[in-house]
Amino acid sequence: MPGSSRLPISLREVSARKSSAQVRLANLGLNLDVIRNVVFILFLIRWTRKLFYQLKGRGIGGSVFDLYAYIRHALYGVFLRLPGVRTKVQSQVSESILKLERKLVPSGPGVERTITLPKDGWSTEQVRKALADLEGMEHTRWEDGRVSGAVYHGGEELLKLQEEAFGKFLVSNPIHPDVFPGVRKMEAEVVAMVLSLFNAPEGAVGVTTSGGTESILMACLSARNKAYSERGVTEPEMILPETAHTAFRKAGEYFKIKIHLVACKAPAYKVDLRAVSRLVNPNTVLLVGSAPNFPHGIIDDIPGLSRIAHKKKLPLHVDCCLGSFLIPLLTKAGFESEPFDFKLKGVTSISCDTHKYGFAPKGNSTVLYRSDDYRKYQYFISPDWPGGVYASPSIAGSRPGALIAGCWASLVRQGENGYISACHKIVGTMKKIEGAIREMPELCTDLKVIGRPLVSVVAFHSPTLDIYDIADAMGEKGWHLNALQSPPAIHVAVTIPIVAAADKLIVDLVEVTEEARERERKRIAEGRGHKGPVKGDTAALYGVAGSLPNKSVVVDLAKGFLDTLYKA
Ligand SMILES: *Cc1c(COP(=O)(O)O)cnc(C)c1O
Ligand SMILES: *[C@@H]1O[C@H](CO)[C@@H](O)[C@H](O)[C@H]1NC(C)=O
Ligand SMILES: *[C@@H]1O[C@H](CO)[C@@H](O)[C@H](O)[C@H]1NC(C)=O
């Protein structure tokens, strides 16, 4: 049969084809196996590595504690979401926000609001009158030195000069250097002057920014981009003292940099260097130290951090936003100081706020780099935009040239001696307040200074009284001091307006502390469990809400606060 003679062949063919297909499939199977194994091994390596660095960084005890804290937060979060609890908490939160609103947003029949454009513009006189009224709204008296930090101006005369500088450069914008050459020149000179204050080496560079936060954001961005481009780091991490300014946490959120917080333990309240060393791993892109930090005014051990950074070839940012023009001049003003600047070879970037103790108008700061190898990574350059080749040094596009003029005028008007004399007054006043708390019998038994502050901030806590009650009582006397948490404390950041008010501050602090002591004595005598009948705002926010393991209530309150700021 013709067909039958062909069948065996085709069968053979079929089986041959089949077997080659089988071989191919088998090969494929083999490849799949290999792939699966490779993927699995990579997975194992990745997680072993993660586990290794977690254990290296936090130790077994620390890791168990991290896990415990995580579970506690999660469980508390579940508790907060239980039907009965949730409505109760929500109504409490809304009530607090409403209270805040009543305090911040003027209301009632007498209050005029402008929420649409006036059809015809107001007369100049009308605007002037309205501005004067706005300026005169009832407020905590910063003019009389009642506010800690916040207002860093350098005196009436300097304010006038800044106004003039503003007037001359109101329309200018450094984005057009050919149109506003004077602004470009002033900006470059501001950076050069600040560099010279911080012992910058040959080749050091910098940029100006809109404030300390932007300076810090830029330093973190530059470190992240550098590590990505030079070492291929795709999961960046940075190591912060827990007391470092919160702008670093903001940078972590904005730029997806994982943050490791390192404890700053009593009695020195400086960052724990051994913990920093342990946390360094191949993903680390930046180490951070403060000179000094915001909460306690303490200068971290920058020489120690510098040694670690140098040894591990990592960038180290020193936050001198607050120290600004005080810390570089401490020695010249005759005060004790500690090394913190580019003289230490591990320090690669420094942020310095000209708008704090540089007395420049608000909206001005600088970030300095040891060399252009760091600065170039913060630039934004877009070569192919239809709008033209675009390059900008920092976050902003258009920028106010008037601020640059105001800043430049302040620096050259004050001069080194002007800043040294301001340093005398400010640091001297800090030491006066510190001395009162440490030595006056009315204060020293109940209030304790945190660490050894050397610059403008003095923080204190109380082992015996509720420190937040003291903050609230000071608030009632017209003082705005800063409340701190973990540990509960308050601080005074001395500014020029506070210098003249310091004696009154000490007198009021003595009075308030005596009253608190009296209340505490009564409470103990009556055997009451709770500290006081009615809590003030600070005590409620930090003492009650702040003590909860899951801070989502505080987050809700803070969000409500931000919303309130935009209620017309
Ligand atoms: C004020 C401050 C900053 C930056 O704050 P801005 O309000 O953005 O200028 C950063 N670090 C410290 C220690 C500060 O005190
Ligand atoms: C805290 O509680 C909130 C709301 O109940 C929840 O959304 C959040 O995930 C909790 N946080 C943690 C870390 O578990
Ligand atoms: C001042 O602040 C503005 C932005 O607010 C910034 O563009 C400018 O560069 C700053 N200038 C100086 C001298 O710090």
Automatic annotation (TrEMBL):
Its annotated compartments are: Endoplasmic reticulum membrane
Cofactors (names): pyridoxal 5'-phosphate
Pfam assignment, any one? Pyridoxal_deC
GO biological-process terms attached to the record: carboxylic acid metabolic process; sphingolipid catabolic process
| Gene Ontology molecular function | pyridoxal phosphate binding; sphinganine-1-phosphate aldolase activity; transferase activity
- Which SUPFAM superfamilies does this chain map to? PLP-dependent transferases
InterPro entries with a match to the protein in the record: GrpII_AminoAcid_Decarb, PyrdxlP-dep_de-COase, PyrdxlP-dep_Trfase, PyrdxlP-dep_Trfase_major, PyrdxlP-dep_Trfase_small
User: Topology in the membrane?
Assistant: Single-pass membrane protein
Q: Which residues carry this modification: N6-(pyridoxal phosphate)lysine?
A: 356
GO cellular component terms listed in the entry, alphabetical order: endoplasmic reticulum membrane
Gene3D superfamilies linked to this entry? 6.10.140.2150, Aspartate Aminotransferase, domain 1, Type I PLP-dependent aspartate aminotransferase-like (Major domain)
Q: Which residues form the signal peptide?
A: none
Its family remark reads: Belongs to the group II decarboxylase family. Sphingosine-1-phosphate lyase subfamily.
Identification of the protein by name: sphinganine-1-phosphate aldolase
Q: What species was this sequence derived from?
A: Sporormia fimetaria CBS 119925
Tell me the lineage of the source organism.
Answer: Eukaryota, Fungi, Dikarya, Ascomycota, Pezizomycotina
